[in-house]
User: Which sequence fits this backbone?
């Protein structure tokens, strides 16, 4: 007998009919000799409905009370799903975050899980029950209700899987797995059979919004095998797991992209120690997150400093940078919010030279100018003009032989 | 400084605007140097919305999960009311039944409160906070969520008041107090300034649906001063409290009625020991509640046995009784569901003779035939044909001098 934690998001439980469909899936799994813990989100639309009630009372609702309010969303779902399971003749029992002791810190609206007391759940599983747990919520050590922030249900599922030492944690979504590239852009994109945590983290942070980054980090930390599956279709999805030997076949596992960034450059900065923090300090103080950073030293003892931010923060960052430019006596400030970041990701590149040159020459052959480059151990990212998004993705997908199943070991 | 527990029902918190109005009232009370604990119900309509979700999944939803579902209703209200209070610049803190340790037995959907741990609430009050508690819900000793049954929020409020040793418990409703008779029928009905628990219990059980009987019983048991007030108007309402000396002035405090009953008679029953239980046993087995019971022994060694049930159970009771009549060899079965019970209620009647004769002769003078009579220490009830409801009420209201303020001590 194996223990599986399954997580269904808001869309998957968005109507009574869909809750019944989820119940069917859960029952199927239990019949395959699995012990099942189900983690669910609020029905789609419910969190927004509750938020709008709060907003009609207060422009800035007190965070503690917002958590009390929002946590009712998942509580409704656990009760309804348990009813649907019981109606099918199965024994189910629902638990709120508080009831199953999902202990978090006390940072309301974006709490972090500290500990889970799994004894109660284990006892119910031993009795043959299906355990249904509310995602997204917990309690702090004073018994206040907390929430983990949007999408936190993924994290709940992984944390439950870790606490229960589950065999796998299945995340049901509206896609059927992780692809070598966005299939809406690259028709020849293939679903990956398996991918490492690190690769998935790079993919996720680069805009492949299949999974919350936090959940993947959590899974890596506690070595939980994660599987992304479709709520609406059958299939084995994509397994996200630790690196092992037979993965080395693939140089790269996918091409990710993120068009939600904007680029800012401050030109002709006096090149002296501490200048980077003088530039980025005010940006950080304004709670703007910085992604890529590139600095080149020029010949005239000045330097050009370029970084990217979320596109939504572009105007704000530009205004701050213009002030900074005056105070540090820089020559000029420039910006561009019509860019896209394209990245090749793969644990294989650690042991293989030549990935970068393949990437750069493939793009050059198509006349695509590279504006920024940034690398990590398992990723090379470039920033190019947004108009090259589709061409760039397809070019790289072909250049790394992802079209024709060269990485068959990883593609299902 | 006094401590007041205030309870607002679903209609009082039915919209965002009404929640804001409740917040205003709470703030006004706190300004009058009161410590305030507020108990609230689900927004009107919310419980029905949740129930219909459950019913669309299961004809008989599992009681435990129904409680998990329904308890979200009050949880939404406590969060919203706390937000409204904070928005006005006051410090509020919300608690679910579980958080404030409202311990109940484990009878889901109609749990009874066993214990409340008031330490946490007291600590918050000392810090000057307004404490907002979810009505209607608690937890059993295994941490399962329970609910107290519809209207249970009144009971929560009284239990909180008892646990906190509050000065008064205020129940806000859509009427402004308890009247000497139903003001929709008797124009000259007056609002009572004060009434005893026992009188209120008789009034409530007789169909004056201002308060839940359970809440009044709880208040009597723990000697909590209860006050019924209007959510929408100002006024001092009606105080429900222990009997004291200056109440003796009033013979009776009100005329109650209940038209939700039906009468059944089994005629010509052999008069022998145990016959009553043979008749009522099958009725009780069918979960039909019996109210009045009257038995007369006739001359021919047979007896006529009459009782009343809820009008909704009339057909079912009649069918059962017909079976019983055959098995015990009774002559006949008769029934009437066009009846009304009218009662005069007052602690004063304990020490005064003549109440019954005043009542019966006043009714006789108007040609109203009495079908059944039943008495308790502080109440005399008669069953008459339903068509006499209005005439009977007005006649008795006048006969006991309630019209002209003879009981001025009790009428505001």
Assistant:
């Amino acid at each position: 007998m194996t223990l599986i934690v399954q997580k269904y998001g808001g869309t998957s439980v968005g109507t009574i009919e869909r809750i019944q469909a989820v119940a069917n899936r859960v029952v199927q799994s239990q019949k395959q000799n699995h012990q099942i813990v189900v983690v669910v989100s609020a029905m789609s639309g419910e969190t927004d409905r509750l938020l709008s009630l709060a907003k009609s009372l207060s422009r800035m609702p007190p965070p503690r009370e917002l958590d009390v309010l929002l946590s009712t969303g998942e509580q409704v779902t656990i009760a309804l799903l348990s009813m649907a399971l019981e109606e099918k003749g199965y024994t189910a029992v629902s638990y709120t975050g508080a009831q199953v002791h999902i202990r978090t810190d006390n940072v309301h609206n974006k709490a972090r899980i500290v500990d889970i007391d799994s004894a109660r759940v284990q006892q119910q599983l031993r009795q043959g029950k299906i355990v249904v747990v509310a995602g997204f919520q917990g309690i702090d050590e004073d018994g206040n209700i907390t929430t983990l922030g949007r999408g936190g249900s993924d994290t709940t599922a992984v944390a439950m899987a870790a606490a229960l030492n589950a065999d796998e944690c299945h995340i049901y979504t509206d896609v059927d797995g992780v692809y070598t590239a966005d299939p809406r852009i690259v028709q020849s994109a293939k679903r990956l059979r398996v991918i490492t945590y690190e690769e998935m983290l790079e993919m996720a942070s680069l805009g492949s919004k299949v999974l919350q980054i936090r959940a993947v980090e959590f899974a890596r930390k506690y070595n939980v095998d994660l599987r992304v599956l479709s709520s609406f279709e059958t299939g084995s999805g994509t397994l996200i797991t630790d690196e092992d030997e037979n993965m080395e076949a693939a140089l790269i596992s996918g091409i990710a992209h993120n068009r939600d960034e904007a680029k800012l450059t401050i030109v002709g900065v006096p090149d002296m120690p501490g200048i980077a923090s003088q530039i980025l300090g005010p940006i950080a103080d304004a709670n703007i997150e910085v992604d890529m950073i590139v600095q080149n030293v020029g010949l005239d003892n000045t330097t050009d400093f370029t970084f990217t931010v979320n596109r939504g923060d572009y105007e704000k960052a530009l205004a701050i940078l213009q002030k900074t430019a005056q105070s540090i006596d820089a020559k000029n400030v420039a910006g561009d919010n019509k860019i896209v970041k394209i990245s090749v990701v793969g644990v294989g590149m650690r042991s293989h030279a030549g990935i970068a040159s393949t990437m750069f020459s493939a793009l050059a052959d198509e006349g695509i100018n590279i504006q920024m480059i940034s690398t990590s151990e398992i990723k090379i990212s470039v920033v190019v003009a947004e108009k090259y998004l589709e061409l760039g993705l397809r070019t790289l997908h072909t250049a790394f032989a992802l079209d024709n199943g060269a990485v068959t070991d990883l593609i299902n």
Q: What stands out?
A: The first strand of chain B starts at residue 2 and ends at 8.
